[in-house]
Recover the amino acids of this structure.
């Protein structure tokens, strides 16, 4: 049965569209960066003995080059140029005021020997490795306590050669958690742009405890059946801009995180001010935009617009569980186009993975002021599966101007959620049927009329 609207409600909605600009707050830090800004000092990796044959291990060459360039960090910074070739390497670390620049025909290859990826301490907001107790393998490209770092090029490639790690994961022969492809910790002023990232062993780009991060014009690819190969995962970070990316992986395309259970609650660094523009992609085992499930430091002020997800499991998801605690609030997702997606919008509150037995099952998350608007979709199986937690607070969920061509006879399934809607087809579930207009506009998270 189609939902009917009174004339006054329709006029109120149209008036709101006419007089409100749905612009992203705080997007000034999404400015385009001059990637070719000249660093006063520049070297080529071959000057340090690197051989681009895809066979010679070049870890020492990368480390020696960066060690040399560190002497110029206080003299305007430096640039490390990677020319055309196949540059096999283990994990190496970056320095402040550095540009790592890849030629269009340059490919940095991650070593297939796990000994070339050192084991480091777990993140304090996780308490242990995400997959296994204890430490974790360090990412291929790593940085800690850095300022002003650019990883970019003329669409060169960084290939983690993750298939060997996926095999170890599936056979349960790993001793430590798999490494990311790029991880920067406690860093500020980070730009990652104009590159292709392939076959990460685990999550691909992981800024954690970072501020002022820009990821623009990147392509991230991994097989659709590769385990946990998330695309971009901002984690306990703020002022992050993700724009103009194509992502096709085995898990979430973008996953916004902030720590795990009691460790994330104690560390208490939220992820906030996340801007996402013009992202296209697909997967079969994850989602387009995910929040959680590790969200125990809190997530707020997420603005995602102009998204296209196709042939995917889920488009938009909030993942949480008993024991996560904290909050997800002030989320705005708009202008989304879907094609061939199993579930358009999903809340999953039953993620059973915990770091240890010491988590507090009574630590419940607060989920509130979630706005999803201007969504169209074709060949959608289910419009929404919105599952809250009994006795918890999943409130002010607002759905506006959503039109989905749904194949299921039960397009919405909702429990333990509260909210409002307007101009939603097929008609939404009972807990969200009350109209946004005219009385509940202020209960929803909507943006002001300025950038």
């Amino acid at each position: 049965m189609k939902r009917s609207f009174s004339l006054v409600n329709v006029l109120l909605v149209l008036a709101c569209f006419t007089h409100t600009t749905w612009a992203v707050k705080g997007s000034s830090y999404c400015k385009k960066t001059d990637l070719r800004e000249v660093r006063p000092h520049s070297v080529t990796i071959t000057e340090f003995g690197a051989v681009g044959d895809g066979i010679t291990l070049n870890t020492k060459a990368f480390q020696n080059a960066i060690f040399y360039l560190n002497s110029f960090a206080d003299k305007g910074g430096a640039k490390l140029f990677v020319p055309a070739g196949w540059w096999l390497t283990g994990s190496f670390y970056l320095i402040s005021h550095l540009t790592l620049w890849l030629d269009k025909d340059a490919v940095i290859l991650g070593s297939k020997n796990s000994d070339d990826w050192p084991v480091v301490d777990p993140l304090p907001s996780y308490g242990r490795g995400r997959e296994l107790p204890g430490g974790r393998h360090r990412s291929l490209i790593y940085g800690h306590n850095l300022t002003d770092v650019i990883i970019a090029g003329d669409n060169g490639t960084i290939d983690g050669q993750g298939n060997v790690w996926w095999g170890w994961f599936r056979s349960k022969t790993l001793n430590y958690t798999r490494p990311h492809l790029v991880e920067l910790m406690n860093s500020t002023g980070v730009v990652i742009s104009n590159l292709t990232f392939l076959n990460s062993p685990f999550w691909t780009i992981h800024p954690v405890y970072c501020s002022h991060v820009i990821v623009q014009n990147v392509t991230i690819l991994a097989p659709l059946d590769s385990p946990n190969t998330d695309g971009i995962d901002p984690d306990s970070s703020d002022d992050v801009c993700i724009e103009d990316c194509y992502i096709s992986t085995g898990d979430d395309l973008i996953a916004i995180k902030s720590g795990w259970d009691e460790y994330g609650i104690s560390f208490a660094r939220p992820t906030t001010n996340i801007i996402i523009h013009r992202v296209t992609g697909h997967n079969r085992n994850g989602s387009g935009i995910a929040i959680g499930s590790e969200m125990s430091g809190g997530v707020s002020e997420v603005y995602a617009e102009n998204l296209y997800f196709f042939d995917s499991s889920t488009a938009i998801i909030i993942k949480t569980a008993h024991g996560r605690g904290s909050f997800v609030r002030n989320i705005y997702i708009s202008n989304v186009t879907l094609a061939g997606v199993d579930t358009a919008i999903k809340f999953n509150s039953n993620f059973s993975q915990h770091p240890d037995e010491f988590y507090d099952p009574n630590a419940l998350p607060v989920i509130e002021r979630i706005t999803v608007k201007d969504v169209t979709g074709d060949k959608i199986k289910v419009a929404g599966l919105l599952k809250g937690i009994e006795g918890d607070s999943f409130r002010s969920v607002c759905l506006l101007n959503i039109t989905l061509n749904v194949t299921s006879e039960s397009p919405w399934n909702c429990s333990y959620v509260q909210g409002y809607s307007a101009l939603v087809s097929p008609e939404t579930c009972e807990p969200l049927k009350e109209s946004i207009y005219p009385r509940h506009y202020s209960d929803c998270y909507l943006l002001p009329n300025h950038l």
Notes: The radius of gyration is 22 Å.
